[in-house]
From TrEMBL, chain A:
Lineage: Bacteria, Bacillati, Bacillota, Clostridia, Lachnospirales
NCBIfam families on file: HEQRo_perm_3TM
GO cellular component terms, semicolon-separated: ATP-binding cassette (ABC) transporter complex
A family per Pfam: BPD_transp_1
Primary subcellular site in the record, as a coarse category: membrane
Protein name, as recorded: Amino acid ABC transporter permease
GO molecular function, one term: transmembrane transporter activity
UniProt keyword Transmembrane present: yes
GO biological process, one term: amino acid transport
Transmembrane segments: 23-44, 65-85, 131-153, 187-208
Positions of the ABC transmembrane type-1 domain: 17-205
PROSITE patterns named among the record's database cross-references: ABC_TM1
Entry-linked InterPro entries: AA_ABC_transptr_permease_3TM, ArtM/GltK/GlnP/TcyL/YhdX-like, MetI-like, MetI-like_sf
TrEMBL record, chain B:
ATP-binding among keywords: yes
Family: Belongs to the ABC transporter superfamily.
Domain named ABC transporter: residues: 4-238
Protein name from the UniProt record: Amino acid ABC transporter ATP-binding protein
Keyword Transmembrane among record annotations: no
Xref: InterPro entries: AAA+_ATPase, ABC_ATPase_HisP-typ, ABC_transporter-like_ATP-bd, ABC_transporter-like_CS, MetN_ABC_transporter-like, P-loop_NTPase
GO molecular function, one term: ABC-type amino acid transporter activity
Keywords of this entry: ATP-binding, Nucleotide-binding, Transport
One Pfam family of this chain: ABC_tran
Amino acid sequence: MDKDILVEYFPLYKDALFLTLKIGWQGIILAFVIGLIGSAIIHFKTPVLRKIVGIYIELFRNTPLLVQLFFIYFALPKVGIQITAKTCGVLGLGLLGGAYMIETFRSGLEAVPVIQTESALSLGMSDFQTLWYVILPQAISISVPGILANVIFLLKETSVFSTISLMDLMFTAKDLIGMYAKTIECLFLLVVFYLVMLLPISIIGAIVERRMRYGQFGD
Amino acid sequence: MELLKVTHLHKEFGQNTVLNDINLSVEKGEVVVIIGPSGCGKSTFLRCLNGLEEIQGGVITISGLPVEAGKRDITKLRQKIGMVFQSYELFPHKTVLENIILAPTKVQKRDKEEATKEAIELLDKVGLVDKKDYYPRQLSGGQKQRVAIVRALLMHPEVILFDEVTAALDPEMVHEVLETMIALAKAGSTMLIVTHEMAFAKAIADRIIFIDKGDIVEETRDVKEFFIEPKTERAKKFLKTFAYE
């Protein structure tokens, strides 16, 4: 392995990492918001919306992100909706992640005992206040492992962004290999950068999880 | 003054009739104790009163306003009806103080400082003011239950429902919770209490209601007499289960 090559390519990978993180986090925030709204719709058993959310979840969980991205990037302009590759990446990741986040939040909401809801209602709280102040905080803390698993999963999924010519880590690696054929160095850097991005999240996740389990609320 | 009125209340779960035809009128300041064997419907009855259960027949009114589960203004009515649960149901992610002032500040939009001040006064009365920043899991069962009572009180309810509030507690803790409730009764609160503590029932009740199989079997204001010589055979048999010779 040529050390000079590693040093030379390093800045390119660094830029790609930042792009991946930027699009990744925007997509994850979108996924989080979709997750909250969608799980609230299911939680309240809202008549028609609930069906729509159900269809959305099945649609996005059962098609590959690659296909979703192609659809958003290449099919939408045909009906007159133009979006940039970056927006497409955020949207694709957010919609895919949203489907997973809804399910994660939903199981968290279901894990909070019903009598907690009754307790809040008996204090005169509305359904929304009960969800927002009492049930959701407990549900989220129960969902932390699932949320973190989703975050890591989504950041890894960003590797298909290269197909809509976003210069993410995967794109950079493939591009450099194609041009200079320094395959070993390029792949080595690729693995290192993915680890640099994801390992801290896994480690922080493990710590947060342990705190949630043992030191729950107080101490 | 009549505060709570229940006429021809009928409640069923599917095919199962839980409450048959319950009629009850509670005056302001009255302490009504509801007793009866397990599964007789007494807890369900309390839950109907603040709209946690839908009813299949009859009318419940509080200060003349009908209580109907699922109606929009049910939240307004629930503010008038406090409820304390057997399992405390404090919110685990909030401190004692946060638990207590959450509903007054968010539901009644009261000033946070004013609510806090009153919360601390009430906590002081039940001897828990030094625990105000603790989380529920750091408290004993009896302490949690007293916090739950303070939480219900801070909403200034017109009537408070107590659903077997000492059933999950050690005997010593039972005592501290019951003391708190007796103090409330003396201060003139209107209370409906479901309990299995017969000595406590005798001490606190203005009226005893004995429910069995979804019906009010016996109802009397002569509380002492009821515990010595109940009028119905069913109540006699029930009370015997508490006596050991």
